[in-house]
Every structure is written in C-alpha cells, then in structure tokens.
Amino acid sequence: MSDTRGPAVWERPLTRRDVLIKGAVGGGALAAGGALTGNAFARPTAAWIRHNRAANSTLVVANFGDMQNLDPYTSSADQVTGDILTNLYAIPVTFQLDGTHNGARFAQANVFRGQVASASKWSKDKKQIVFTIRNGIKFPDGSPIDANAVKFSLDRCFDVKAVGSFLFSMVGLTNKDQVDVLDDHHVRFTLPKPTSLLFGNMAMFYGSAIMNPAIVKTHATTADPTAQGYFKTHTAESGPYTLQNWNVGSGWTLQANPDFWEPVSAKTVQFRVIPDAQQRELLVKSGKVDLALGIPLKDVPSLRKSSNLKVVSVPTREVAFAGFDVTKPPFNNKLVRQAILYAIPYETIMKQVLYGQGTQLKSPIPAGTPNSSFAYWHYNTDYAKAKSLLAKAGHPKGFSTQLDIQTGNPIDEQTASWIQQGLQKVGIGVSINKQPSAAFTAQLQAKKHAFWFSSTSWISINNDPLYHLYWLYDQSCCTYGNYLNPKVEKLVNTWVNAPLNDPRRKAAVLEAQKIIVDDAPWIFLFQPPQIYVTGKNVKGLVFYPTDLFLRYQYFSKT
Amino acid sequence: MKLGFYAGRRILLLVPVLLGVTFITFALTRIIPGDPISLIAGPYVSAARKAELRHAYFLDRPFYSQYFHYIRDLLHGNLGTSIVSGQSVATELSRRFSATFELTTTALLFSVLVGVPLGILAAVKRNSWWDGLSRVIGIAGISIPVFWSGLMLSLLLFYKWHVASPPFGRIDPQVGPPHHLTGLYLVDSLLTGNWAAFTSAFAAIWLPAFVLGFSVMAPIMRIARQGMIEALDAPPTVALRALGAKPSSIVFRHALKNAMLPVLTMIAIVYGYLLGGSVLVETIFSWPGMGLYVYNSIGSSDFPAVQGFILYATTMYVIVFLLLDLVYLALDPRVKY
Known about the structure:
The complex is a heterodimer of chains A (558) and B (337).
Chain A: H1 11-38, H2 46-56, E1 58-63, H3 79-88, E2 93-101, E3 104-114, E4 117-122, E5 128-133, H4 147-159, H5 163-170, E6 179-183, E7 186-190, H6 198-202, H7 205-208, H8 213-219, H9 228-231, E8 241-247, E9 251-256, E10 268-273, H10 277-286, E11 291-292, H11 300-304, E12 309-315, E13 319-324, H12 334-342, H13 346-352, E14 359-360, H14 383-392, E15 400-406, H15 410-424, E16 429-435, H16 437-445, E17 451-458, H17 465-473, H18 486-495, H19 503-519, E18 522-527, E19 529-535, E20 538-539, E21 542-543, E22 556-557
Parallel strand pairs in A: 1-10, 1-11, 3-21, 15-16
Antiparallel strand pairs in A: 2-3, 4-5, 5-7, 6-7, 8-9, 9-10, 11-19, 12-19, 13-17, 13-18, 14-18, 20-22
Helix pairs in contact in A: 12-14, 17-18, 18-19
Chain B: H1 2-31, H2 36-41, H3 47-56, H4 63-75, H5 89-124, H6 129-143, H7 146-160, H8 185-191, H9 195-233, H10 235-242, H11 247-277, H12 279-284, H13 290-299, H14 303-331
Helix pairs in contact in B: 1-14, 5-6, 5-9, 5-11, 6-9, 7-9, 8-9, 9-11, 11-14, 13-14
C-alpha cells in the first residue's frame, strides 16, 4: 500500500479492503470500550486493557486433523495443511474481497488483486506479462522480497515438479526460463499464446508460494538440492503468519508476521487437533475455542438453536457426482445412463443427506462458476420413464452392479444408499463396495471404477467453466469415466484460453453443457455446503469460494 | 542364575518372532489394494511425476527388494519415513507411544486397584449385595461402549458441571508439556518439580483413564472373584478354616496368592489389548496416541507407518508376556523352566 510506483492496477480495491478491515477492528475496540464503561467496578487500567487485548487478538481453532507435509510445492494440499500453507505464504496474485452471504464475507472468485505484486501489465500481443513487485517488502528475517526471490520460488516450483507447475503448463508456461527478472522490482512471464487463465491458475500456494531463498539455500544438499526433506516439517514464510510451534498430533500455533504488509487482526491463532466432531461442538459452545471446523451437516440444525454461536453455511463449487465408466457395459449405453439419472431420488437426498443445505447440481459446471447453466437438465425423478428407457436399452428386467465409495464419510455412505434404493425401484440391484481412501483414489486415477461416488472428488481451483471442463472432460488425468466426446473436446480446446467475457466462448460453454447433460456420463448430484461454527463474538470470517481455505488475518473478537 | 539364562533364551527367541511379524505385515500391506502416491500427489500431477514419486519411496521395486531394504533400514534402527506426513516413523511412534503408554497404564492401574478389591470382596461376601453390585458394575463396564460413555461424561463433567478439563489432549496447551525425560507427562512433571504441569496433566488424564479403565475392569474383577472363590473352596483353605485360622489371614495370607495367578494373566491380556486398541478413547479425548495414528495410516495406505506400528505393538505384546512368564516363575513353585 505504501508502494506508489508503477500503474496502480490493484491499488484501489486494496484501499477499500483496508477501510473495511480497519472499520471492523475499530468497531471491536469501541465495543470493548463500551463494555468497560458499562461496568461500574471495572477500572480500565492500562494493564487490564492490554490483558483484554491480548486475549482478544488470539483465536483458538478446533480442527479435525493434523497437518501433513508442509512443503507448499509438494504438499497434497489436504484441507488442513492447505488452510495453513495459505496463511503462511504470500503469493503474487490473490482474490479480491467482495460481498457477503449468510453472515460471511465472500472473496471474489474471478477478480484478482496483487499481494506480492503491486501491479501487472500485459504486452500488446498479450504474450508477455510484467509483474511489479511491491516496494520495500521483507521476509521475517529481514531479507527483501524482490524480483529475485519471486523468480527463485517459481524456479523451485518447476524444479520439484509441483502441482502448480502443471497448472502453469496448462497456460503455456512449461519451462522456468520463461520467467525473467527484469530488475529488482519486475518479473516477466513469456507465454506462447494469450490466455485468460493465468491469474486463476497461479492464485494458490502450490504454484506460487514465495519462499525465503536464504532458508531454502541453507538446507539444500547435493542429494536434495531443493530441500524437500527439510520443508516437510519446516517453513520459510512470507505471508501473514509464521509457524511458531507444531506439537505433532496435538496442535500448532501461528504468530502474526510483523513484516507482512497487509493488516493482520488475529495476532495469534492456536490450532487444537480435536478428532471427534461432537467434542469440537462442545468446545465451541463452551467458549473454549472460537472457531470449529469440520462440523457434520446433521448437527447444523441443532447448533443453530444455540444462542451463543454463529453457524455459517456457505455454498461451494464442489461437484459431487457418481460417475460411470462409459466404455464398460451396461454403462456404455446412453439409454441406461439416462434411465439411472431418472431413477435417483434427488429431493430425498437433498433433504435427508444434506439437511436442506447445499445446491442440487444439474450440470457438469457447478452453480457459482460463470456460464454455468442448469437449463438443460431434464432428469427429475421419474421411475416410469426410467423403466421404459431401460426396456428400450434391452434391460427390461434391470441388471445388477456395484457402486464403489470410500469408507469413513457419512455423506458418501448415505447418498450411496439412496442411489441404491432409487435404482432398486427400477430393477437395478446395487451392491455398495466400501474401500479405504488410498485404494479408492488409486483406482479412480487408474480409471478402473465402473460406477463410483465420492462427494469430495472435485473442486476446480480456477473458477473458470472451461478450466473445469478441460480437466474433467478433456485431459487424460481426470476423465475418470473415460468419457471423451470429440465435440466437447473441440469446444474446450478452441475456447479455453479466450477471455471469459467473449460471447462466443460463453456459447461454447453452454453448448458443451447441453451435450454433456444429455450424454449423462455422471449422475449429477449436489454441491455440498461448507460449515463454520464460531462464537457470537467472532468477526471477520471471509469465505474464499475457489479454494475453501480460511484467511485468519481477517478474524477479530469482541 | 538359571532365571537369567531362561530370560536370555526367551529374549533371543523374540528375534525370529519379530522377523516373522515384519514379513507378514509387509506382505499384507502390499496385498491390500491401495496406492499412497495417488493420495499425496493429487489428480493434476502427470503419470511421469507419479512414477518418480513411486521410485523415491522404492514402491517401483519388486517385493523381495523392498523387503530387503526395509529389513536393512530396520537393523539400523530406521523405521522409514511416513509417506503422508513426511515425518520419521520412529520419531512419531515414540512420541505417540508415550502418550498411549501413559494413558493405558493409568487406566490399567485404575482398573486393577478398583477391580481386584471389588472382585475379592464379591468372592468373600458371595451372593450378598456387594456381589450383586460388582456384577452390575462389571456388566456396565463391558456393555457400555466407550465412545458413548466418553462423550456423555465429557458432556456432563466438562460442559455442564465444569469439573473436567476441556478435551485438549494430554495437557493444557497454555501450560505446555514438562521438560522431556521419560515422555510421560505425569512422571516428568513430578521429577522436575513442575507442579503446574502435573496438575494440568492429571486434570487431562483422569477422565479418559477412567473411561478406558472402566471398560476393561470387568474381566479383571470377574477373574479375581472366580480365582478367589476357587482358592477359598480349595481343600487346604477348608482345612485352615477348620483349624480355626482367622478369616482375614485365610483371605490375605493364603488364598490371595493362589487367586492372583489367573488375574495376572488377565492383566497381561488386557494390557496388550489396551496398547493397540484405545483408538476410540484417544479420538474422543483428542489424545495424541498411536491408535489414532495407525487408524489414519491404514486409510491412506501409509506402509511405513503401519509396519512400524505393528512392529511396535507386537514387541510390546511379546515383552508383556515375557514379563508375565517371569512373574509366574517367581510366584508359582509348580512352574519349572
């Protein structure tokens, strides 16, 4: 914010966000002051206020699991670790804040602002982009975050073949030599063709976390030149927080990084690993913790009745679908697939499994992603129609099959049993096959499931409709059901890098959805909500729909 | 001298047992379908990159070569690195072992100190209301599942009545663990005179230890009762009674020693079970022990972690039974080596 050089592409929204934050913090201070004067016995000594402030700037979080590999570039980015890495590392470009929903502030999913970068400028031919690195920003050890540090981190991303490097190659950044340092404050990317997906693909720690080069170099060895072994349990932060301690299995503490250049309200964030959901709920009700994560949907109605809690349920873009392998009989017959889609009790699933929360998914592209359309959906539950389609497909008496799911997820198990009951009504016998997650995932990635369901299988980290279809309907990695429609592929490949607001691109997205919904390669089921439960006095929950990770810097308590 | 020789031979015999266990575990973890790499790499990563990762963890090698590497590392005291967390399995297990060990030992102490006297009382006052009470306690302990009793007691004692501390694990994080000597918080805090840590660790452990101890108290109590009844009805005891020995002397000096032998066996069995099977209590009370660790590791096919745990658990089990045999030797003159 102190940076006044260069084109101020992202400066205005930053200021507005500052106002919001300072407003919230100021409001909190005023409220605390009010409480003080209201109590005749309280003597507002300086020490007393200081004591209160310390307590108020500490946020205690009950988390459901422990962190794993801490290297931002090789992390599996599971929900717990990803959440923390997001708060430890600054990235060049992140999402802008805007809007509220059900008491949570929302971040934009397609509008970006600079974090390490203060501005960016595309060349005329749109094949080069120059990032201006914010002036005077530092790592916690005092060394500068400059163009060289950015280049160093991006090089490491390519060297360790991070997940982010695959997202960079999707937009044509396949080699680290395409990233140049122009001077201390400017980094240039050179791309083979224009793209609209760059920011969305890099606004995540696993592509762009800025790591402190000094720490990486200190711990690099000839056997391990990128120090991957060291960073499994250590950090080299640049973001809002530093990892103060980690008591494996029990919890860890984040401490505000005094050198971070954006406001950080919650100075200390203490995480406690509380594996039992009921205990997490008791703890947040008792006020011993301020925020509980991983709350089951079934408990939401009763928690809402508690007067000292805030229950925030936000829609996600996670697509929960049951997939068919469209090359294996009987699922290679489109009529069979359509018949199955007609035989699913969607309303019952929404009511009984999601307790009326979340969104019913009616397209391969989730609601919340631009150009998503549910208009092509025509599969409202209709058992008679399902039966006649089955007869037409040559299965008048139905058939029997197996549905693979993961163990340990109640939502998956309940949904599977409703699918089973629905299909039973049209003569299709389903046996539910529960697998441990490693076995399920290995089989998924090897495309060996004939019929499977997982409610947590996919969320596109770039909120772009063609990015979403590119991975799920075009790329060999993720077309788990072997559904490859040449028409869809052509639409995706032609328009994927075109600007989002191009009307021809929008037409292509709609066309692709129409084809896919009709082909029925998935049972489109739902978009589950994300649940956060906080104490009434906790403010500043900001929901990031793209990655579902929290940003603890905005939290404050009154 | 002879006892030392016997113990030494028994310890040597452990080597082939443990070697066999490593082989069976190793083979089983490989037979069960599942690929840890697909979980840690995620979907975007290319097949080539996954192959590299598999290579890094030796997962691309044939079975016998993997096993050979594993045994070689094992002989160097290296249990391998967890594929999921990236931490050394030996370090994680030893940290978690002390948590589980402290909890189960406290639970066992509770169940023995309460269960054995109740069992003896029930035997001495057979068919009285004492006997009935001990039977009710026994049935309750066995039939109430720990996940229910744990949650209910937490709800009442922590949430409603504020007499138990919050389920934050082994110690209040504000207090912090005592200086590391044995890894057992109660012992370490006493040795270092850290009273705050002792109070906090005790406040944290008593409820989970009670829940766990209560669930295994029944078999110990019933065996103590049964053993005592048999000892009291045995001809020598009858003769003693006929000779006019004092009842307390009959129970404590003569019958107790005979009644304790089956109790010892039961304690050893229960202890072995507790060391590996306290996953539910650990989950409910956020206890950072081994049960939860291995439960998660099995789900993610984290081979080194699962192998390490089973090796650890087997070793403990065998050692407990070795100790039991030695104690038998000392107590029972009929046993010869």
